[in-house]
Amino acid sequence: MKTTLAGFLSFSALLVTGMTGLASADFVQGDIGDAAQNPLATPWTRPQATYKIIDPGLPTVTGDGVSAVQSNVIYLNNCKPNGCQVTPGQDNSATNRSSIPDQASTVTPFAYSDSNWQQVVQCVKDTYAAYGVQIVTERPASGNYHMAIVAGRPQDVQMQSGVGGVSPFACGFINNAISFSFANIYGGSVDDVCWTVAQETAHSWGLDHKFDNKDPMTYLQSGPDRKTFQNTAGPCGEFSARNCQCGGSNMNSHQMIMGTFGSSTPTPPTVTITAPKQGDSVQAGFAIRADITDDVGATKAELRIDGNLVATINAAPWVFNAPMTLGQGNHTIKITGYDVGGTPDDASITVAIGAPCKKAADCSNDTDTCVDGRCVPGEGVDGGLGDTCTGNPECKSGQCASDGSGNSYCVESCDPELDGCPGDFGCITAGTGSVCWPGAGGGGGCSTNNDAAGLSFFGLGLGALLLSRRRRRR
Q1: I need a surface site. Which of 50, 56, 386, 471 has the fewest CB within 10 A?
Q2: What secondary structure letter does DSSP report for 153?
Q3: DSSP 161-218
Q4: Separation of CA 115 from chain center
Q5: Strands 298-305 and 329-339, bridge-based pairing
Q6: What is the mean pLDDT of the chain?
Q7: Does 14 score more than 50 pLDDT?
Q8: 47 has a pLDDT exceeding 70
Q9: Contact 400/407 with Cβ under 8 angstroms?
Q10: What's the alpha-carbon Rg for the chain, to the nearest Å?
Q11: What is the C-alpha separation between 374 and 327, in angstroms, rounded?
Q12: CA–CA distance from 460 to each of 88, 309, 414, 465 (Å)?
């Protein structure tokens, strides 16, 4: 039996394009220019997905009357060739019972080509690729599963015109639910059908509408055509921000799905630095370009130069500019790309500004010193290598390190194999990186004595890293 909870609003509206919005940038990142002031008074242009709230006190059962076990299987059903027969009642995907229709109903088959259907299926798989969710197109012979009917029109199940899809909703996981994505009203648009399927299936797990135009739970059209579950907390809402139906002021759809199903085996993105090339001679401020591709989608890229984080961008094109303050000599450029699940991969090259230095005298600025072939501010310069410091901003390199005994100095990243620290500095290995540390060299080589164990870096999240000393090659 179906029960509707009083006091909740079942949303079914249509989108309109070209209208200006009220929403504040404090609520959501990105363009929300289609957030209308009065959505209920306007004929919207895109059919929108919605949900119908059911009584959460009624447990979903199998055909044998046994409480269902939460399942990660989504069965995409296009109702070909003869349509889908559904009867009203408590949701049970195995017996085609649904809490959505008011009477026995037939959903007409998916109206488009097999090729179009395969594109929809692949898009849904891509949308859920980061999670432990299994997408199938054949009805499972046994067990529990969500059935996503991707076919027909809203009138097939007594829904009003303009509803793009509908799902049961109960502020939690509804076992063996049936959702409806009315594919036949979208004119063969793969992106629109895929967006609707993602939203409707997620509604049955307790996800509300989200006021974020990049997320499949959104009503806003101004974001990308292919939407992905965003790993950011933001307000719920349709055409304006509101509190969430199930409590709280924000929702993180990615974390909710991850918390329900866990992660899939992630495929890291592919990162390629396209400019400059390995070994190129460049000028200060040079542009750095990368291609980042992923089977689901790349969401972030970080630029590090000589081990220091320089910049982060959150959307293509993946183009950076190196700081104008980079000195003469060799510099290591590293780009790290991330997919929607936070899986990283990176690529690195080495370039030179001018000729690589071998000693301080090779640098054009007489206050510089030479580290691994690059000219950096040296001793005697405020914030230069070896200058005392109390925090990263005081150092030209952005790195202030302490040995835990009251000694804190500005340091530079180095490679222990290059024997590249000047004078009485030695290359100390800490975790995955190394820095030039004063008093550790002894004429350019590392000693295994005078250990600076317990060196830590201010504000870099490295904690009190125990250092090991490597003897450098001469």
Answers
A1: 471
A2: -
A3: TTEEEEEEE-SS--TT-EEEE-GGGTTT-HHHHHHHHHHHHHHTTT---BS-TTSTT-
A4: 29
A5: antiparallel
A6: 79
A7: no
A8: no
A9: no
A10: 29
A11: 7
A12: 58, 10, 17, 11
Q: What amino acid is encoded at 297 in this protein?
A: G
SS3 at position 338:
strand
Closest Cα partner for 347 from 286, 303, 283, 296? Answer: 303
DSSP H or E segment with residue 115: helix 114-127
How many CB atoms within 10 Å of residue 390?
A: 10
pLDDT of 32 > 50? The answer is no
> What's the rounded Cα separation, in Å, for the pair 55 and 6?
10
Q: How far is Cα 93 from Cα 81, in angstroms, rounded to an integer?
A: 19
Quote the percentage of the chain above a pLDDT of 90: 47
Q: Which two tokens stand for residue 454?
A: 């317990």
Q: What is the pLDDT of residues 171-188, one digit of tens each?
A: 889 999 999 999 999 999
Among residues 21, 11, 27, the alpha carbon closest in space to that of 250 is found at 27
User: Distance between CA atoms of 370 and 385, rounded to whole angstroms?
Assistant: 10
What are the distances in angstroms from CA 281 to CA 227, 275, 354, 369, 372?
40, 11, 7, 20, 16
- For residues 30 and 20, give the distance between their C-alpha atoms in angstroms, rounded to a whole number: 14
Q: Does domain 270-353 have CATH number 2.40.400.10?
A: no
Q: Which of 45, 47, 42 is nearest to 12 (CA)?
A: 47
pLDDT at 20: 24
Question: 0.70 exceeded by the pTM?
Answer: no
Higher pLDDT, 297 or 256: 256
Terminal CA-CA length for the chain? 82
- In this structure, the strands spanning 281-282 and 344-353 are parallel
Judged against a pLDDT cut of 70, whether residue 264 lies above it is answered with: yes
Q: Is the pLDDT of residue 189 over 90?
A: yes
Show the CA angle centred on residue 344, arms to residues 341 and 347, nearest 5°. 155
Going from N- to C-terminal start, the domains of the chain cover 14-261, 270-353, 366-469
Q: How confident is the model at residue 332 (pLDDT cuts 50, 70, 90)?
A: very high
Q: Which of 200, 270, 210, 204 is nearest to 238 (CA)?
A: 210
What the block records as the tokens of 358 is 């071998």
Q: What is the 3-state secondary structure (H, E, C) of 399-443?
A: CEEECCCCCEEECCECCHHHCCCCCCEEEEEECCEEEEEECCCCC
What does the alpha-carbon distance between residue 407 and residue 240 come to, in Å, rounded to a whole number?
54
The helix (run of H) or strand (run of E) holding residue 255 is helix 253-261
Scanning 204-314, the segments in alpha helix (DSSP H) are 253-261
Residue 469 has pLDDT above 80, yes or no: no
- Tens digit of each residue's pLDDT (9 = 90 or more) over 288-299: 999 999 876 688
